[in-house]
Amino acid sequence: MKKYDSRFLLTPDFVQYVRRARQQQIAPWKFALALVTAMAFFGAAPLRAADAFQPRAVPLVTTDPYFSIWSFADHLTDDVTRHWTGTPQSLESMVRIDGVAYRIMGKTPGEEALPQVGLSVFPTRTVYEFEGAGVHVTLTFLTPLLPHDLDVYSRPVTYLIWEARAVDGRTHAVSVYYANSAQLVVNTDDQTVVWSREKAGDLTVLRMGSEAQAVLAKFGDNVRIDWGYLYAAAPMSTVTASAIASPSTQYRAFIDGGALPGEDNASTPVPAGSRRAPLMAFVFDMSQVGAEPVARHLILAYDDQYSIEYFHQRLRPYWRRNGAQSADLLTEAEHDFISLRAESEKFDRELMADLIRVGGAKYAQLAALAYRQSLTAHKLVAAPDGQTPYYFPKENFSCGCISTVDVIYPAAPILLLSNPRLVEASLAPVMDYVKTGKWPYSYAPHDLGFYPIANGRDPQKTESMPVEESGNILILFAAIAKAEGSPAFAEKYAPILKQWADYLVEKGLDPENQLCTDDFAGHLAHNTNLSIKAILGLGSYAQILEMQGKKDAANVYRTKAQEFAKRWVEMANDGDHYRLAFDKPGTWSQKYNLVWDKILGLNLFPPEVARKEITFYGNHLNRNGLPLDSRKTYTKLDWELWTATLAESPADWEKLISPIYDWVSQSPTRVPLTDWYWTRDGTQVAFQARSVVGGIFIKMLSDPAIWKSWAERARN
Q: Of 9, 365, 493, 650, which has the highest C-beta tally within 10 A?
């Protein structure tokens, strides 16, 4: 293992971390583990690749469900980069050191790979380290997903940053090659593409898109964007060469002479998968590199022009709401590069420090991996009024639905922490639809259609989860009110919320044969965990009414929730645990919904309920985690973290999350973080790259001071 730079021990970040650890009286073994992680996060030398946290797939370019590119390998040179669906979307990079070319990203061309010696995944950044031929190279993928600034947050931009420094006391001639394929702008390789050069300030800009430009014509799950345009841009002053030309001519020109073809390919259009399909490429000459790092960067952006269709109206991406064009996007991204890089690094340090403080080092790394995945599974757009933010999640590799309420619910913790306005923006498209009167039922809808088309679905044909979705929305409205210190958002939809609360009074205590969010397990009557959701939904509604000053009405609903909770304890009791269903003795299930009783301070259930369950769960762990219930050995990642958050002791918390941490590095299935997997062998059942992993952040909401400090950033 490489030695850490002792100067790290004197940094303000580390001093603050130690101070917090002492205040919390962290156990020595836990402090030591957290110290190693903190050193990596706060700037010490990286761990060797063999020792570091190793996700099965690593986020690279991460802005929305369509512009989401990952490495499905331990080393960035082991495989072609891929869209989250697994479809190749090739990004390539080489470094030329003293006349010899080495790969640092992608499988082609067939040059030797510079050894990868480190990998770190932070909330807004992925950092790869390479070393060989006397030079250390760092390649950083930075997506400044800073939720407190929605203008920046909504930009479909990822920065690629190369830094090189000599490590052998000599100087070396170093240049960098970058290229991307035409696969990034099509759904399938047989679609034809066109390309051009564009002007944007002092940037060299290359552009590519599909020939057909069928805007918002496709919808569904395993689908990639084929409208709008991809841009690669860099400051003219740093670009040695740029070209839109065939792979073979580009590779040879760089490998042999550190250059690119003199002219762009004029044979447009061509199929994206054809050998004639060009790459968009740049070369950056770093000249003679010594001990001081030399850096170059590139902007990779995708302007979809129109992002979502909402009840037959096309909606612009949020960054375009005031008339901005692609040139504005690129010039602003370049203007803000230095400040956004510094702000993102500061954001990462502060968030990681608080994650470690609340849940420990393992928890922090899980959350860091989940951060961009969760946010990238959404799209932020301007509502039909042209200004209000609407936030649409896609139900990746589940059904491809848009604005699924029981996907908004598990994803909400990351948004409640970082900017509660984004939870409002997630719920508003659903609530505004119901407000029109077009939804004819007394309970909440399930979704609004299939991404990116949110035109609603025939109520007679849509998937229905009456208790589930009604409870979800009431709980989330209470959580928003708590985070914002105001019930203002709930007041906009007061009659609807009352209607759904009344539905839960009638149907919630002992649910009929309904689906819950775990719909893959099928319909289940008398579901005890679903009953908890209904009870907490009523308690949440009472809390909203209390904040509105409607004390009498609040008392009515709180009394009903208290009555239901008391009856629940009696009906669900099965000795040393509580049942999966009221009428099924000898069964059990994770009672993950119970976590909101703690977080919202509803205090409807006796503390003994959670204590009994946590003790029981500790005796039913498998190698890779806690099964969802007694029917199967599969589990749901988000619910595991919600269940673990019920634990009162650090030892119980650690016992429940340690198998998850190990599984993330050891799962035999290479995909972006799945939330549905088998707990015995760790293989994926289904689902990947979904927003619901934002539920991992629920532990942060259990610390009121931490929650308040982060939520307030978005209001300042």
A: 365
